[in-house]
Amino acid sequence: MAKRDYYDVLGVAKGASPEEIKKAYRTKAKELHPDRNKDDPKAEAAFKDVNEAYDCLKDEQKKAAYDRFGHAAFDGGMGAARGGAGGFRGQQDFASAFSDVFDDLFGDFMGGRGGTAGRSRATRGNDLRYNLRISLEEAFKGLQKTVTVPTAVTCGACDGSGAEGGSEPVTCPTCSGMGKVRAQQGFFTVERTCPTCNGLGQTIKNPCKTCHGAGRVEKEKQLSVNIPAGVETGTRIRLAGEGEAGLRGGPTGDLYIFIEVREHALFQREGTNLFCKVPVSMVTAALGGDIEVPTIDGGKARVKIPEGSQAGRQMRLRGKGMPAIRARDVGDMFIELSVETPVNLTGRQKDLLREFEKISAENNPQSSSFFSSVRNFWDSMKG
């Protein structure tokens, strides 16, 4: 069966430029790739025809021979897809051709490979993290805080270029500026970071004596951070461009301030609400009364204890909690009563309590209800 014309296979005219041929090949290879046409048994053969055509037409010498003699130019084992002594060479050419379409299919997903000699020498600096501990009172009010951050800044001696005396980096001879090198292993092309330039694509013959070619130096930097009112543990504040300087003039990273609010001796926080456990005497809980409680703003609030209050009872003070971050809402404060049992009683106090217990059995409804339920439980178990 006669072979199809290579130009027809790629869908280009005979006088097409190398750029047009390469573009047509990539389009066809994407369209006919077996992974995209698993249900089409003819796709693999068509895909091989496209690669064979491109392998010929991308090479100036092969293309000139093909234009003059057609397929007859490669009879006798000279073709890229022939067996014998030319077989391994053909496999290499196919893998090289396939790597071009692999770049298009997966290059964006893998972060790209850069242009021709043009992988950018500049690398973005790292983001930094700073853990900042503040008090609950500071979280309530908000504050300006000055922090000292160890970081890497642009080298002033070489303006971040990494080169001494205004000289410029040169294209890496190992990877030709790509930042990566490829090794052929049969059908596959293995790619790894260039060991000479560490992926930068360029090398410096005369490195800066201050930064030793990195384009940046270690330095502590003081920054003023605005902590808004209402922050809580886990709040993250981003300071754009305040991270590490990039390598060789690359863009600067960001600084992230992570907030941790210390535990408070009086208040427990849940979101915007505050909880405060207040001890009261048995007499106050029984007879009722007024008490003063602290508030997070440093003030006081008077709370009325109802007569007959039980331990654990909560009372709400509206608007006395924490502000919502970057909002006008304010939480509430909850007072929880802790009825305190007196200790170190005198003999007289003990006698009075015993006497009080004898005459107040009917005034303890919870106890009466509980022990009544206990008796019913035991009676049911006996039955």
TrEMBL record:
Pfam family, one: DnaJ
SUPFAM superfamilies: Chaperone J-domain, DnaJ/Hsp40 cysteine-rich domain, HSP40/DnaJ peptide-binding domain
Sorted UniProt keywords: Chaperone, Cytoplasm, DNA replication, Metal-binding, Repeat, Stress response, Zinc, Zinc-finger
Protein biosynthesis listed as a keyword: no
Residues in CXXCXGXG motif repeats: 155-162, 172-179, 194-201, 208-215
Binding-site positions, Zn(2+) 1: C155, C158, C208, C211
GO-annotated biological processes: DNA replication; protein refolding; response to heat
Gene Ontology CC entries for this record: cytoplasm
GO MF, any single term: ATP binding
Binding locations of Zn(2+) 2: C172, C175, C194, C197
Domain CR-type per the UniProt entry, residue ranges: 142-220
Ranges annotated as CR-type zinc finger: 142-220
PROSITE patterns given in the database record: DNAJ_1, DNAJ_2, ZF_CR
Family classification: Belongs to the DnaJ family.
PANTHER family documented for this protein: CHAPERONE PROTEIN DNAJ, DNAJ HOMOLOG 1, MITOCHONDRIAL-RELATED
Its job: Participates actively in the response to hyperosmotic and heat shock by preventing the aggregation of stress-denatured proteins and by disaggregating proteins, also in an autonomous, DnaK-independent fashion. Unfolded proteins bind initially to DnaJ; upon interaction with the DnaJ-bound protein, DnaK hydrolyzes its bound ATP, resulting in the formation of a stable complex. GrpE releases ADP from DnaK; ATP binding to DnaK triggers the release of the substrate protein, thus completing the reaction cycle.
Comment text on domains: The J domain is necessary and sufficient to stimulate DnaK ATPase activity. Zinc center 1 plays an important role in the autonomous, DnaK-independent chaperone activity of DnaJ. Zinc center 2 is essential for interaction with DnaK and for DnaJ activity.
Name of the protein in question: Chaperone protein DnaJ
UniProt source species: Wenxinia marina DSM 24838
Gene label: dnaJ
